[in-house]
Amino acid sequence: MTKGLQIQNISKYYGEGMNRLTALDRVSIEVGPGEFVAVVGPSGSGKSTFLSIAGALLQASEGEVKVNGNSISRLSARELSSVRLNEIGFIMQTSNLVPYLNVLDQLLVVKRMGGKVSTADKALARQLLDGLGLHSKLKSFPESLSGGEKQRVAIARAFVNNPSVILADEPTASLDTKRAYEVVNLIAHEVKSRQKAAIMVTHDERMLKHCDKVYHMEDGILSLVQ
Questions:
Q1: pTM for this one?
Q2: In the chain, what are the domains?
Q3: For residues 50 and 10, what is the distance between their CA atoms, to the nearest angstrom?
Q4: Gap between the Cα atoms of 79 and 167, Å rounded
Q5: Axis-axis angle for helices 103-113, 119-131 (nearest 10)
Q6: Mean pLDDT of 146-161
Q7: Torsion sign, CA atoms 135, 141, 146, 147
């Protein structure tokens, strides 16, 4: 079985006939375990549509998306929800932490969505937070955290269900240069050490040195840069 994320000739259209708009045009990419790739490109180039389809949030008009060799392109809404919960970890532009949950519970609430929280689940959550330098913040609430600390919590949350795929959408958009480097370096380290297939959409070309491959998206067409 092929591990990681495979996207094969996906296209996304809006409208019909003369009014049809092509948001994605036969996009293909394969990302294996431990591989961290970046997708860059101007606003409106199709990056958000691409990431939404890769994350099982949006259906492609044509083509196929596979996670660990299993197609997710024709699953039911319930099945797609399960894929998003168990197979895909999301890191967004903002941390989107729950204001009334402490740092540890930000991770455990994800586990509760999938069922009962076990002792092993709690141990994994603590291990992730400790590895990201948040050991002393387990009982802290979002209002007391810095922007970089909040984003580190979001990184840990993305990994807590042990997903196969990590998708990061402009994870450094709200951070200064120093914290942006720290955050992308942490994502890259976790991807390598935990052998996840990861894609980061970014406008920040300073962060590309942390990535194994760089792709460029323009007018819905994806091409390998390096």
A1: 0.90
A2: 5-224 (3.40.50.300)
A3: 9
A4: 19
A5: 140
A6: 90
A7: positive
Structure tokens at 179: 């914290």
Residue 102 has pLDDT above 60, yes or no: yes
Which structure tokens are listed for 128?
Answer: 């992730």
> Using CA atoms, how far apart are residues 23 and 62, in angstroms rounded to an integer?
12
- Confidence band of 222 (pLDDT split at 50, 70, 90): very high
Q: What CA–CA distance (Å, rounded) separates 185 from 226? A: 19
Q: Which pLDDT value is given to residue 175?
A: 78
Which CA distances in Å does 155 have to 46, 67, 73, 106, 162?
24, 20, 26, 11, 12
Q: Report residue 101 as tokens.
A: 């949950």
SS3 of the chain = CCCCEEEEEEEEEECCHHHCEEEEEEEEEEECCCCEEEEECCCCCCHHHHHHHHCCCCCCCEEEEEECCEECCCCCHHHHHHHHHHCEEEECCCCCCCCCCCHHHHHHHHHHHCCCCCHHHHHHHHHHHHHCCCHHHCCCCHHHCCHHHHHHHHHHHHHCCCCCEEEEECCCCCCCHHHHHHHHHHHHHHHHHHCCEEEEECCCHHHHHHCCEEEEEECCEEEECC
> What mean pLDDT comes out for the span 78-92?
91
Alpha-carbon span 114 to 11, nearest angstrom: 32
